[in-house]
From TrEMBL:
Gene3D superfamilies: 1.20.1280.50, Ribonuclease Inhibitor. It holds the Pfam family F-box-like. CDD domains: F-box_FBXL18 (cd22128). GO terms for biological process: SCF-dependent proteasomal ubiquitin-dependent protein catabolic process. InterPro entries: F-box-like_dom_sf, F-box_dom, FBXL18_F-box, FBXL18_LRR, LRR_dom_sf. The gene is Fbxl18. GO terms for cellular component: SCF ubiquitin ligase complex. Coiled coil: none annotated. Residues 14-61 form the F-box domain. This is FXL18 protein.
Length: 706
């Protein structure tokens, strides 16, 4: 009896989860996937059965990265809480069959629906939308075979009330745009290829019988993102034709993102002239050809701008200050600025300036003072070299931006000017000419202890000071100004890479170690850091940045050998929250030791390795896939033969596809002639987020879509 009484006393003194208030329990339950709440947690006890059906948990259902969800779970979920769902996000659920869409008809009160990346036919779309009379926001894909004539009158009635539309086009089409007569926000993603699978050239002409009169009179936001290719440019011009005739009076965001050379025409010039006369913008992004050499920015009017992108434009710093920043007026509202590839944006003028010349620190200072509330800043893909002036280094000026959440910089911009200028070159005559024990040349020993690194660099490194001042930074990209990924979008793999900038030669392990000060870092990209000798800084990041979810490393150190492999494996043992890992490095050996270290990343979901002349061990890959149960994407582009790659891919699919419905495996020789055909079958979610290398800071306006 005494023993029982002691146990009961211990239980009474312990914390019982069910004794928490409903508010605390609801907050805890909000971190649990909705499918688990409704299908599992709800069945544990009466109290949780009630709380799991609370409106705060069922109002918005997010399935977009619930890789374990299947058709049966969606069916049961819609049956249990369909009437309670007002917002449903199934973006990127590429593994679900198209018949899954039929169950959404149970969600009679649905207001927002995201089906981007889902399989859906015209008939199924028509049937579903016919029952969703309260729908106001819709995101869908338009693929070959889409036929707007199959949409019923009830479906068109629903579309006529939709005010927000996101449409990803894989075929020349207006999609459902002509049916949406109340559009206020239109987001268009053009992913049309120039050639069919059979090799035939495609045309940008729309399908016969389609209406060519989109309704833009109420439009407030127009956004278009184009994948490479002339067909995408042809189709987007058809969408813009109506805008050029009559510009909506309430338009406040106009954004066109094009990676190529999108030439200006008479129609687009009329559109821009009309915008300059009739609207005041809050967000702007235009193709570089529309801005370069024109006085457009001088005539456009802005209200309370929150996003600017002048990516790859030849805009000079003088024009940036005079025409955009307007002498520091009205720019406190700007939260996101993309100057990626804008090589002259920190120089007074661009006519006589070389891209490698020093920046004008006064321009950057004006930018920092005027845009003091910036949260996202991209200065990558350019040579931003600071002068020797004390206190005017780029890193010192950027440290004033205390609200930054994401930052992208070129490698050459973070180097200490004195260090890069005064550092003596390594030469044979500098080596002591003595007899006895041989001296190893060119390899330095770096401290692996974070405190030792801090003591070495805290007083002299401007980059260390910058990292110390941006303690709340969540995304950081340090990318070489001449770096190009070995695997571009629609072209063969690049075989030769350009050498790094001379100013970047001194950037290495110590600078990487400085990043470990970012306690809240979630996403890190490092590319073309030539002075990586041991990779010891990576270990510091693994130990200190415990929130790291996305890691992308490319071309670190010397190209003939992966010098940081040991440090990388040590780092991975500490990355418990890592979900996405992308590695691009020539001669990378994906062997047993690497995959054993990677197995410590218990949260890992997606892995991509790009390596010219790289090797892999099939047994190690299979063992890794068996141990890491969360991995649903494995992309490896190596130097192995086509037979080895195909056999491994087939083995992974056969072994794990049944228990991992979202599994996507692509293993291919990097330099194979059919690589582009292999890439076109990769789900857009993976292709855009991890497989293809690109700078993602300020790529789009914040909160463009939910």
């Amino acid at each position: 009896q005494e023993i029982v009484s002691e146990e009961s006393e211990e239980e009474s003194n312990g914390v019982n989860l069910m004794e928490f208030s409903d508010e605390i329990l609801l907050h805890i339950l909000s971190y649990v996937p909705c499918t688990d709440l409704v299908l599992n947690v709800r069945r544990t006890c009466r109290k949780l059965a009630t709380l799991c059906l609370d409106k705060s948990l069922t109002h918005t259902v997010l399935l977009q990265k619930d890789y374990k969800v299947n058709k049966d779970k969606v069916k049961q979920l819609m049956r249990d809480i369909g009437k309670e769902i007002y917002q449903l996000n199934m973006a990127g659920c590429y593994w679900l069959p198209s018949s899954t869409i039929d169950h959404i008809t149970r969600c009679k009160n649905l207001v927002k629906l995201n089906l981007s990346g889902c399989h859906i036919t015209s008939l199924r779309l028509s049937k579903m939308l016919s029952t969703l009379q309260h729908l106001r926001s819709l995101a869908i894909d338009v693929k070959p075979g889409f036929d707007a004539s199959q949409l019923s009158s009830e479906c068109k009635a629903t579309l006529s009330r939709v005010s927000e539309l996101k449409q990803t086009l894989y075929t020349p089409s207006y999609g459902v745009v002509p049916c949406c007569t109340s559009l206020e926000k239109l987001l268009l993603y053009f992913e049309i290829l120039d050639r069919s699978r059979e090799g035939f050239m495609l045309s940008g002409q729309l399908m016969v019988g389609e209406s060519n009169v989109p309704h833009y009179q109420n439009l407030r936001i127009f956004y278009a993102r184009l994948a490479p290719g002339y067909v995408n440019q042809e189709v987007v011009r058809l969408y813009l034709a109506v805008l050029s005739d009559r510009t909506p009076e309430n338009l406040h965001a106009f954004l066109i993102s094009d990676p190529g050379s999108f030439a200006e025409t008479g129609a687009t010039k009329n559109l821009l002239d009309s915008m300059a006369r009739n609207v005041r913008l809050d967000a702007l992004q235009l193709p570089k050809a529309w801005i370069n050499g024109s006085g457009l920015l001088q005539h456009l009017k802005f209200n309370n701008p929150f996003y600017f992108s002048f990516s790859r434009c030849t805009l000079s710093g003088g024009h940036l200050i005079q025409r955009v920043i307007n002498g520091g007026k009205d720019l406190k509202s700007l939260t996101s600025l993309n100057l990626s590839g804008c090589v002259h944006c920190l120089a007074p003028e661009s006519l006589s300036r070389k891209a490698e010349d020093d920046i004008d620190s006064s321009i950057l200072e004006s930018l920092v003072v005027s845009c003091c509330n910036l949260r996202h800043l991209n200065l990558s893909a350019a040579h931003h070299h600071s002068s020797k002036s004390i206190g005017n280094h780029l890193c010192q000026l950027l440290s004033r931006l205390k609200h930054l959440l994401s930052l992208a910089l070129p490698v050459c911009s973070i180097t200490d000017v004195a260090a890069s200028v005064e550092k003596p070159p390594t030469a044979p005559h500098l080596v002591p000419q003595t007899f006895g024990r041989k001296v190893r040349i060119g390899i330095q020993t770096y401290p692996r202890n974070l405190a030792d690194q801090a003591n070495q660099k805290i007083e002299s490194s401007v980059f260390w000071a910058l990292m110390g001042s941006l303690r709340f930074l969540e995304t950081l990209e340090i990318i070489g100004s001449s770096f190009n990924s070995a695997m571009p979008r629609n072209e063969p793999a690049i075989r030769n890479s350009l050498p790094p900038c001379v100013r970047a030669q001194s950037v290495g392990d110590s600078e990487v170690a400085a990043i470990s000060q970012l306690t809240y870092l979630q996403s890190l990209t490092l590319a073309q850091l030539p002075n990586i000798l041991t990779g010891s800084g990576l270990v510091s990041i693994g130990l200190q940045c415990q929130h790291l979810r996305t890691l992308s490393l490319a071309n670190l150190g010397m190209m003939g050998k992966v010098v940081y492999m040991s440090a990388l494996m040590d780092m991975l043992k500490h990355c418990k929250c890592l979900r996405d890992l992308r590695l691009e490095q020539p001669y990378f050996c994906a062997g047993a030791q690497f995959f054993q270290a990677l197995s410590h990343c218990s949260s890992l979901q997606r892995l991509c390795i790009v390596s010219r002349s790289g090797t892999l061990q099939s047994d190690a890959v299979m063992s890794f896939m068996a141990n890491c149960l969360e991995v649903i994407m494995c992309h490896m582009f190596m130097g192995e033969s086509l037979t080895v790659c195909k056999n491994l891919q087939q083995s992974i699919v056969q072994s794990f596809q049944a228990e991992r419905p979202a599994l996507n495996v692509v293993i291919s020789p990097l330099l194979h002639e059919d690589l582009t055909e292999v890439i076109r079958d990769v789900p857009m979610r993976h292709l855009d987020e991890i497989t293809l290398f690109k700078s993602r800071v300020a790529e789009e306006p914040p909160n463009l879509w939910w």
